[in-house]
Amino acid sequence: MEAFFFYTVKSIASLTLLYSVYWLFLKKDTFFFMNRFYLMGSIVLSLFLPLFSFPVSVDATGDQYAELLQTITITENGFNSALNENLNIYQVLMIIYITGATLFLFRFLFQILQLSRLVKRFGITRKEGLYIVSTDANYAPFSFFNLVFLNDKMQKDDAEKIIAHELIHVKQFHSFDIVVLELLTVFQWFNPVVWFFRYSLKEVHEYLADEGVLLKGYEKAKYQQLLLTMSIGAQVNDLSNNFNKSLIKRRFIMMTKMKSPLPARFKIMLVIPFISAFILVFACSNKENPEPLVQDNVTNSESQINSDVPPPPPPPPVPGSVEEQNAKNSIGESGKKVHKTVEVMPEFKGGHEAMVNFLIANVKYPENAKKKGIQGKVFVSFIVGKKGKISNVRVVKGVNQELDAEAVRVVASMPDWNPGKDKGKTVDVELTLPIQFKLN
């Protein structure tokens, strides 16, 4: 759930960034094909770029900490109140999101059904590679893929110009763009930038169609008069390439506008630093050079956790030289160095929620600690081995002997995890789990 949330945030940020470039620098140019390519390319980048992680080698400085997991809060009744509040918020947001996505999906399917009913009702005739649907309804002419819907009372000369216009939409697959935008709207119905993309892309489609018609030699004034007349009719739905009233004025301006100078094409290069910034900010995972040990990466922790970050894990207090003890701490079940952060981190089987349920079911708040009013956060370090087994369980930062012992006991009793992976191989990974003991 959280992974999807962060993916969506990255996608929205990318869409916003790339659309801003279009609106500021490209929108007024007459390079319509390039603008269409830019808008569709921006959508593809924004959907797929957040899915990837680009390793960047950096020099590590300072001490290295183990991965810090989300704090688990245990009350004297064994109830994880803080987590349940967070889950309720996530659940409410997810219900709202799914409800909206479902409504827009039904809207999309209804629009397709609406078009299929028109085809079934009025039938089709083939002309110039198009399927013409002649209707008696007061609809403005429109097309959807190679289906062109015309009013059967339209004059022959007007119909010829309209077919020439719609043929551009068909040959350039403008309906494909519209379907992609409709599906994007299903998943990001709440994102206003998606609606800006929809409007701008349809605008560019009409510019391209107008340009194509005028290049065929049709008189500009008569064509513009036809557009005005046709825009009076009702629109069927948003899936169609239609004569939108709100676009007429801008279309007329673009028809009479001087062509943008060729050097203006290079303005599209402005997007490169924006994409680079997006990659660096949202899609990079830092790695140390040369070893895969990295600095602490705190994820999903409670807001107060920053003040409680433990010191670098010390060796457990057992006999032996410092060198022997450090060597022991750096060795996992595989006999190799323990990693701190890897490409694929270890995960409790069933996910975070399953781990929470396990801890709630198994952690017992010590009675003596209850009586004395002792509470606090215990940081427990442990290693998830190559086979997923838990080992080297120890307290990094404790509260008191009883709470520390209970935290170690329950972590040591965990079932096998899904092991971590680095460069395609399973490896030993050290994690730190904060367990908050809290009295009611």
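Above is the first protein from milestone M3; the second protein from the same milestone is given next.
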Amino acid sequence: MEEERKVRVAITKSDDYDDHQRKHDLEHFLTPKQKKKPSFQNVELSKWLKPILFAIVLGLVFGAGLMYFFSDYTADDPAESGGQPVSNVTDDDNSDEAEGNSNFTMDGQQFQLIQYGIFSSTDNAKEHIASIQQTFGVPVFYVEKEGQYYVVGGYITSSEQESKSIDWLENKGLVRLEDFLVKDWQLAAVETQVSDDEQSWLEKGETLVGSFSKEDFRQWIQQMPDRFKTSPFVEQLSQLTNESGDDFMTEKTMQLCLSFFLAELP
């Protein structure tokens, strides 16, 4: 009996051991392995390392781009340009200085003139001019104002000149208030940027308005700078210089056309 009990106990223990061993093996395969948590120092280092690396990369990229961009504006090496310093002034800047380094000004003018007619088109004005010149031999030209075209002549600045102009026209056969009338006129002040040469030429023209000489006027027209040859009065100025007479009204009409030219510079 004692031997039988020992055998049973041994078998029971053996069964218990086998069950424990199988349980241990199942736990070995079924229980997930727990990952080892990183230490506090490693976590902090990884948090700071990525932003730092990203900032360095961005700095390199943008830094290289800015250096490339601003390299185009770097002054050339004098040695590469034949030892001469490179000027940053362009041809346009030089031309602007040449064209606009003086300021021509002229005060506004008030005077009287002889009006021969007023028309709505240049064709009608030119037709009337041709008629007056052919019939009476009177020097005239036209000027535009507010869409109307005035056929005019004479530059009158005193009552004496007014009386002399009326007498001259009546002696030519024109009738006052029928063929002509004396009209007040006003021109605005002038201010424009010009070159030194243009300034000198314009000042001579301004002097001729106050103290007229037909010979000086012709010479002045011949010296006209190209800039002013686009003026609508240039053709009429040239025609007046070709007038044969040296009489009073011819000179006063040249003087008047000159005043309009200076007041409406192109």
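Note on the second protein: Residues 104-263 form a domain with the Alpha-Beta Plaits fold (CATH 3.30.70.1070).
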